[in-house]
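Re: that chain you flagged

S.,

Sorry for the slow reply, it's been a week of failed gels. I finally had a moment to sit down with the sequence you sent. For the record, here it is as I used it:
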Amino acid sequence: MEISRTDELTDLIAKFVKTVAIKLPDDVYQGLVELRKTQEEERAKHLYECIFQNIEQAAELNRPLCQDTGIIQFFVRVGTKFPLIDELKECLKNAVLKATEITPLRHNAVESFTERNTGNNVGTGAPCIEWEIVPNSSEVSFDVYMAGGGCSLPGRSKVLMPLEGYEGIARYVFDTVVDWGINACPPLVVGVGIGTCAPTAGKLSKKALLRPVGSKNPDPKAAQMEKHLREGLDEIGIGPLGLTGNKSVQDVHIEFAAHHPATLAVGISVGCWATRRGTMTIKEDLTYEIHSHKGVEL
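Prediction finished late last night. Pasting the structure tokens below so you have them in one place:
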């Protein structure tokens, strides 16, 4: 029986979601390798040994890196000429259903108010899908992110009073990581969004989290603030899994938008040591390129 193109697309996405659950993106893995070298305390060294043993066994056993495989989030950039644009939303939902079975993924979609677990990671607004339309393109490119419970706990956004300025943003980031960072299984990837209201700042912070570890904001002032925040957070010495060590974060990324002159909003999103995200592009003939996990074939 010949498989339909929608089924083929669904299968492709499901296999990629499985890959993201089992294998860290190249940049996150390499970042952990470098952080491991900086540890001086024996406890911190031992914890990194545990982290890398976890990574190796996940690959060997073909199992998720962490039992909490999160709520699946897609950040989609779809061309107006992509032939399956009308079917794409349904394909993404069905891909989560399939990935839940074949990976397997833990059942994490719980309906609000009834508190009923759907048992398949699909529910009201789940998977979460953010859309961007790309004119005159026949491709679809997307990021998939697994938002686990621990790494989601420090997530928050706030509109600051105008005179708090960028010092207020830095203070809010530090207060959040100090109060909540250990819940997110450090070393952390910290995404910071700056905008005009709480929702836009929060969304920008999640986009910042999707950037590769080691990347810099192209704006020199934003890049300088990223550097200062990273260095300052490292001085806290949260260390691996929050049990102290030489470093607290893998990286700090900032994304920003123009803001109202009377408001300055900040949002924070945090990834744990196992920041499970992936990026791929699918062409109109359903050939694909995986950008985050080199050498992986689906």
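What I noticed first: Strands lie at 71-79, 128-134, 140-147, 156-160, 188-195, 249-256, 264-271, 277-282, 288-290.

Talk soon,
D.
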